[in-house]
Amino acid sequence: MKFQIDDYIGLIKHRGKNYVDSGGRHIYYEKTKYTALKCHKIMRIEDHLLSSTVWLKDITFSFKVKRPPTSKKSWAQVLYLNGLPWLIYDYLEQS
Fold first, then answer.
1. How many domains is the chain built from?
2. What angle do CA 61, 5, 34 make, to 5 degrees?
3. 11, 17, 35, 69 from 32: Cα distances, Å
4. Residue pLDDT, tens place only, 8-51
5. Where are the alpha helices (DSSP H) in 1-95?
6. One domain, residues 47 and 79
7. Whether residues 88 and 52 fall in one domain
8. Are 91 and 78 in contact (CB under 8 A)?
9. Which range marks the domain in which residue 6 is found?
10. What is the pLDDT of residues 59-74, one digit of tens each?
């Protein structure tokens, strides 16, 4: 395998269909559902030792991320699942 994928967003962004899990088993994954992608203004970022917490406008809960966005990125693209905010997909400088 050429790439290590650590999270759902990495799996969603990757174009492949055949993967190997951490136990060495083969996984076939095909994207079957498409969801809304909406932009939200980043309100604040709390840095922690091993992760960061991102708070977004119009969303009442925070998102825990491995790495905080750079200071130039002031917007977050959020994937919605069943009409509710699910995961931060990417960061943008402008919406």
1. 2
2. 60
3. 13, 12, 10, 29
4. 888 888 888 888 888 989 989 888 888 899 999 999 999 999 99
5. 8-13
6. yes
7. yes
8. no
9. 1-32
10. 999 999 998 899 899 9
